[in-house]
Amino acid sequence: MNLRFQKTTRQLTNTNALRDTRRTIARIHTVLKERQIVRDLGLDESSS
Fold first, then answer.
1. Rounded-to-integer distance, Cα 37 and Cα 29, Å
2. Which of 13, 27, 30, 35 has its C-alpha lying 20 to 30 A from 20's C-alpha?
């Protein structure tokens, strides 16, 4: 949220930070979804 405010007020010096942050969040969501799928299918390796 702060990055958007900084971009709007032209205080953001690294304009790639917004894109990088968005991509990092997408990666986190992907990993969480993968873990949920594994858990739902009962393929959790730690239960062996």
1. 12
2. 35
Q: What is the pTM of this model?
A: 0.65
Separate counts of helices (H) and strands (E) for the chain: 2, 0
Q: Are 3 and 19 in contact (CB under 8 A)?
A: no
- Distance, in Å, from the CA atom of 43 to the CA atom of 17, rounded to the nearest integer, reads 36
Q: What do you get for the CA distance between the two ends of the chain, in Å?
A: 42
pLDDT in tens for each of the 48 residues of the chain?
A: 687 767 778 887 887 888 899 999 999 999 999 999 999 998 766 655
